[in-house]
Design brief:
single chain, 424 residues, alpha+beta, Peroxisomal Thiolase, Chain A, domain 1, eleven-stranded mixed sheet, two-stranded antiparallel ribbon, 19 strands, 32% helix, globular, binds coenzyme A
Length: 424
């Protein structure tokens, strides 16, 4: 692709803060009242308000969302588009590549524009991003023995008194994080990588400590500010404005972390302190051809230089970023040593450490990975993460005067996705 036809991310991209699904394991999380489409809508609105592009020039919306976690999730990207302020005539596509959905939306949007087959040339810009409400519901199982017609006008809660025998609740959050192909939960695949790479509990905790410390330092220095749109949570007199990611811990110590029990298997090294936090959030950005950005006088932030997607054994799903990055580097036509900054999703410390070790073999400097912290401190709202990391990376490249950034994440079920962006 020639430089002038590159797909660029426009300046002004925004994300919501990432909010823990629970406060102190008791109270509902700050975003617990928002569905994924509402979170996506907040991110899109924040982005359109900050990107100097006329909404009438947005021809399509592509948003990632891993799980249909709310009653309006079926409307997906279209629900996010209208909530974000886009008109009824803007089509919208929801994409799902589990934990890579927010990166996949950028890839799909870029490819749709580049391929041109269904690109609306009169409205050349596209909104891409992702959102996830991880307030996954408890679902009733063994319950459908009821004529739809009888209930069709109700659209409300089910009267539980008449439930058939054998009907029971399942926790969709826990069920989703268990992969039947691997016959284990995502966290246990990270334990498996820990064993294969001989990673110790201390190494995992040190990695988590670094993540928390860097996230706190960067929050305190205001480095997340330009990418974040504050969210007002309106609950009457207790209305409040959420500005920061809620899982960043102010007082962590290696000693305290070392005392946390293994969360997923006896003798394991994954704990609540070194696993990604379960949070809600959304992100969005406007993309388009560099030539259209110039034509409409809007400022590009970064160019999408290369994309890679790869698959691996689901029992080591956390390793996916390594083969995906090999492909992305080749597609970008650059070498690992040229990467100035990496945003690697920290699903679990052992998983991230394993990837970083093998990134080293590609010439990627381990010190350049997650210099602003990662999901252990900041959280991993599955369908939003890829978009969040992309805009974090893009703004940081600009702030630091760097050139190439790698954004990469593992994907439950055994995949990885990588984007290489170049600051403009
Ligand atoms: C690991 C996991 C189960 C922990 O959930 P949780 O128990 O609800 O986590 P909490 O945040 O409540 O932490 C548990 C305890 O550890 C403490 N803790 C957490 N991080 C800590 C740290 N860095 N230092 C000290 N204490 C810490 C908490 O304060 C809490 O203490 P309490 O029980 O006294 O209140 C959850 O975060 C998880 O499943 N993460 C992975 C999600 C996932 O699989 N995503 C997909 C990836 S592919």
């Amino acid at each position: 692709m020639s430089q002038t036809d590159s797909i660029v991310i426009l300046d002004g991209a925004k994300r919501t803060p990432r909010a823990d699904i629970l406060i102190n394991n008791k109270e509902p999380g700050l975003f617990s009242r928002f569905s994924a489409t509402q979170l996506g809508g907040l991110a899109i609105k924040g982005t359109l308000d900050n990107t100097n592009v006329d909404n009438g020039l947005v021809g399509h919306v592509v948003m990632g969302m891993a799980q249909h976690s709310h009653r309006d999730s079926i409307y997906g990207a279209k629900g996010m588009a209208w909530r974000g302020g886009l008109g009824k005539t803007v089509p919208a596509l929801t994409v799902a590549r589990i934990c890579g959905s927010g990166a996949e939306s950028i890839a799909v949007g870029a490819e749709m524009i580049t391929a041109g087959l269904r690109h609306d040339k009169k409205r050349p810009f596209m909104v891409v991003g992702g959102a996830e409400s991880m307030q996954y519901p408890f679902c009733l199982y063994n319950y459908r023995g009821k004529k739809v017609g009888a209930a069709v006008q109700k659209y409300g809660p089910i009267d539980t008194k008449g439930l058939a025998a054998g009907t029971h609740l399942q926790d969709m959050l826990l069920m989703s994080l268990y992969d039947p192909s691997a016959e284990m939960a995502m966290a246990n695949t990270a334990e498996e990588l820990g064993r294969r790479f001989e990673i110790s509990r201390t190494e995992a905790d040190e990695f988590a400590f670094r993540s928390q410390s860097l996230a706190k330092d960067n929050r305190d220095a205001g480095h997340f500010k330009e990418e974040t749109v504050a969210v007002t949570v309106d609950s009457g007199p207790d209305s409040m404005v959420v500005e920061h990611d809620t899982h960043i811990m102010d007082n962590i110590s290696m000693a305290k972390m070392g005392r946390l029990p293994a969360a997923f298997e006896a003798g394991g090294i994954v704990t609540a302190g070194n696993a990604s936090a379960v949070v809600d959030g959304g992100a969005a950005m406007v993309i388009g051809k560099e030539s259209d950005a110039a034509k409409h006088d809007v400022k590009p932030l970064a160019r999408i230089a290369g994309i890679g997607v790869a698959a691996c054994d689901s029992r080591i799903m956390g390793y996916g970023p390594v083969p995906a990055t090999e492909i992305a580097l080749a597609n970008a036509g650059i070498e690992g040593k040229e990467i100035d900054r990496v945003e690697l999703n920290e699903a679990f410390a052992p998983q991230a450490i394993a990837c970083i070790r093998d990134f080293g073999k590609m010439g990627i400097d381990p010190a350049k990975v997650n210099m602003m912290g990662g999901a252990i401190a900041l959280g991993h709202p599955l369908g939003a993460t890829g978009s969040i990391l992309t805009l974090t990376c893009a703004y940081a490249l600009r702030r630091k005067g760097e050139r190439y950034g790698l954004v990469t994440m593992c994907i439950g079920g055994g995949q990885g996705i990588s984007l290489i962006i170049e600051a403009l």
